[in-house]
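Let's sit down with a protein and look at its sequence and fold side by side. Once you have written the record down, we can walk along the chain together.
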Amino acid sequence: MDRRDAFVAALAIVLGIAACGVAEVLIRSIAIVTNLAFYGRWSMDTVSPAGNHLGYAVVAVPVLGGIIVGIMARYGSRAIRGHGIPEAMEQILTNEARIPVKITFLKPVSSAIAIGTGGPFGAEGPIIATGGAIGSALGQYIHVSSQERKTLLAAGAAAGMTAIFGTPIAAVLIAIELLLFEYRARSVVPVALASASAGALRAIIHGAGPVFAMPEIQSLTWQTDVITTIVGGIVGVVSVYVTKIVYWIEDWFEELPIHWMWWPALGAIVVGVIGIFAPRTLGVGYDNIEGALAGAFTWKALIVLVVAKFVSWAVALGTGTSGGTLAPLMTFGSGIGWLLTAGCAALAPSAGIDPRVGALVGMTAMFAGASRALMASIAFALEATQQIHAVVPIVAGVSIAYFVSCLMMRTTIMTEKLVRRGVTVASEYDVDPLAHVSVAALATQKLHSLQLEQSVAEALAEIGRQGWLHQAYPLVAGTRVIGMVTARELLAADAATPLAELVKREPVVARPSETARAAVTRMAEEQVGRLVVVSDKDDGVPLGMITRSDVVRAFAGKRGVGPEGM
C-alpha cells in the first residue's frame, strides 16, 4: 500500500459520512410519503401504513406509487428498477464500476415513493444502491483507476447498509462477498473506514442500541441448539424456492403484452388488495421482524403475515419496481423460524426450547440462503440484535442453510438476473497463482539487448549471429534500458535508420520482487505483451524479460529460470 491508497481511504471516510446523510434523507422521505399517502398529513415521523383507515381505497395508494415509479423508470432511467445490490454488482463486473450520476438522485426518490406508498420492501436495498452510486460518482469526478472506483462504490454501499442497520462488520463482509470479489488491504480498509464513519454518525443520531431489539437471551439448552440448527436447514430450502418463485413471477410479467412501465402499477394492485386484509404487509415492516424476534405475535397472526407478505413482495419485486429485499427476506425467515421452533417447544415443553432463537436463526438463514453472503449474515444477526449468546445456533443453522442453498441452486436472488444477461459472477474465490509467484521466478534469463547507437542494419546483423531470441528487444544506452523495439519494426525499417529513432515510448518495466499479478496488470494497462525486468536496486539496468507466455506457465505450476542477480 502507498500514499494513493491512503488518499482513497480518506475519500472513503468522507463517503461514509455522506452515505449516512443520504440514508437519513431517504428514511425521512419515506416517512413523508407514507404520512401523505395514508394519513393526509405532512410529517417526517416514521409511521407504519398498517394504522391507516382508508378501507378499500387503500388499493389506490400503491397503484399510484407504481405508476409514478414506472414513469420515472421509463423517462428517467431504467436502472432504478430492481432491488439495488444486483445492479451495483453488474456495474462492477461490466462497466468498471461506472454508475450514471443521475441514479444518485433517481434511485432514492423512486424508492421513497414505492415504499412510502405501501410497497412491501426494505429501505436497505435502495440506500445500498444509492451509496454505491455516490461512491461511483466520486470515482468518476476525481481521476481514479477502475479498481479504486470499484472500492469507492463498495465503500458507499457498505456505508449505506451501516447507516440503515448499524451493522458495520456485516456491511464490510457483504461488500467483500457480493461487491468486491476480492480480499485485499487496499480494498477492504477503505470499505471498513466508510462503514465505521457511517456507523459512528448513525450512533450519534439514533443511539448505539440494536436495530432489532429483543428480550435478552441468557443461556440456551442443547435442545434449542439442535432444533434451531435443523430449522436453519429447513429455512435454507425455503430460501431456494423463494428465489425461484420471484423469478418465475418476473418471467410471467415478461410475457405480458404491455409495456414494462405499467408492470409496477399492476403488481401494486396485488399489494393493495393484500394490504386491505393484512395491513402489516404494507411498507418497510422492520417492526414485523422485531415482533417475530420478540415472540410478540400469535402463531395464527404470524402465519398470515409470512404468507401475505411473501405474496405481496414477490409479485411487486417481479414487476421490477424499486425496493429492497433484505427486510422482506428476514421477515419470512424470522416468522418461519419462530413457528417451527414454537411447534417443537409445544411438543416438548420440558426441553426449554426458545422460539426466539428459532426466529433469529431463521431470519439469518433466509438471508444467507438467498444471498449466499454467509459471513455477512452471521455478523448481521449478532450486530443487529446484540445477542451474543445465540452465536452457536446462528453459526450452525446459517452454515447448513448456506450449504443447502449451494446444493439446490446454481445462482442466488442477487445473481440470477445477471447470469440471465450473460454476466459471469464468481461465487467462490480461489487462490490466484499470479499473486503467489514473483516476476523473478517467471522471467527469462537469456536477455539480448541492443545498443541505442546502433543502426538497424547493425542490429539485424547482431541478431543474425545470435538467432532471434525475442519478439521485442530492449534498447540500452550504456547499461540502462531506454526503450523497446519489436522484431516487426526492425524488419520494416530502413537499414540505415538509427535504433534511437524507433523508440516510440518509455520502456514499461517490472521488478524482480513484484508479483506476476502486478506484472500482468501493468501489461494490460499499458497494452504491451512483455515487460523488461530491471534491478530493484539499480533502476534501469535490464536483467531479463517477462512475457505473456511466461505468465501462462504460472497456471501450469511451472517456473522459468530467473535472471541472474534477481
About this structure: The CA atoms of residues 267 and 316 lie 5 Å apart.
